[in-house]
Amino acid sequence: MVTKKKTSGLKSKKFKILAAGDFHGDSKATKKLAEKAKKENVDLVVLTGDITGLVETDNIIKPFIDNGKRVVFVPGNWEDEHTASFLSKLYGVKNVEDNYLVYGDGRVGIFGVGSAGRLELQEGKTFKKLKKDFQKVKDLEKKIMISHIHAKGTKSEFSGFEGSSGVRKAIDEFQPDVFLSGHIHEGEGLKETIGRTKVYNVGKKGRIIEL
Questions:
Q1: Which among 170, 181, 179, 175 is positioned nearest to 131, based on CA atoms?
Q2: Cβ atoms 118, 126 nearer than 8 A
Q3: What span, in angstroms and rounded, lies between the C-alpha atoms of 122 and 46?
Q4: 47 and 73 in contact (C-beta within 8 Å)?
Q5: Within 10 A of 18 (CB to CB), how many other CB atoms are there?
Q6: DSSP state of 164
């Protein structure tokens, strides 16, 4: 006789992330965030691109690693393919643009795209890539979608910079639990909801999010 486990009344442990980006080489910012990630005991650090740039440093992601935190990222328009690969290998961190990822004991799926500079004129390709990776995580309990550029029609367009229609189509059709982007520095902290999706513009100050 097979006995079924009783699961009623049990809740899955919250999955906590620290999301940030647009450092442009500012290792002082990442050092502060690494301390915050440790203090808040986050499960994962998610970086939305433009990690390198204005102030070059060899230690930009190192503070997170030193504090024992797992890190994933998408490249921004300041990171070309070679820079993204270098960061991934140097720090042992995962580039979400390369492939979807699963965390939280198989409960949380993460997928996304990176630099607007490579994809902004290829919206069909952007959506196709997001759709392919979403199919791999669609049955998981929670889904996080990441892009460096914001989605079309979101609050970040106050800047006058139009968002990605491919990314917006993915939000509308797939309804991930969370969508994270950066790129528009002045939009840091903006939050809105599209259907069931919570949309955040994160920046170098970072934001703690629980799923």
A1: 170
A2: no
A3: 24
A4: yes
A5: 24
A6: B
**pLDDT tens track for 57-78:** 678 999 999 999 999 999 998 9
Amino acid at 162: E
This prediction's pTM: 0.91
**Any alpha helices (H) in the chain, and if so which ranges?**
27-39, 62-66, 81-91, 116-119, 123-137, 165-174
CA distance 193 to 111: 19
Give me the count of residues in the chain: 211
Output Rg (C-alpha) for the chain, integer angstroms: 17
Q: And the tokens for 62?
A: 């190192």
How far is 105 from 93, CA to CA, in rounded Å?
Answer: 18
Please check whether residue 150 is in contact with residue 183, taking contact to mean a CB–CB distance below 8 angstroms.
yes
Residues near 110 by beta carbon (within 8 Å), at least 6 away in sequence = 46, 72, 96, 100, 101, 102, 103, 137, 143, 144, 145, 146
CA–CA distance, 166 with 172 (Å, rounded to integer) = 10
Q: What are phi and psi of 207, to 5 degrees?
A: -145, 135
pLDDT tens per residue across span 102-146: 999 999 999 999 874 454 558 899 999 999 999 999 999 999 999
Q: Is 196 exposed, middle or buried (0-12, 13-18, 19+ CB in 10 A)?
A: exposed
How many other C-beta atoms are found inside a 10 Å radius of the C-beta of residue 52? 22
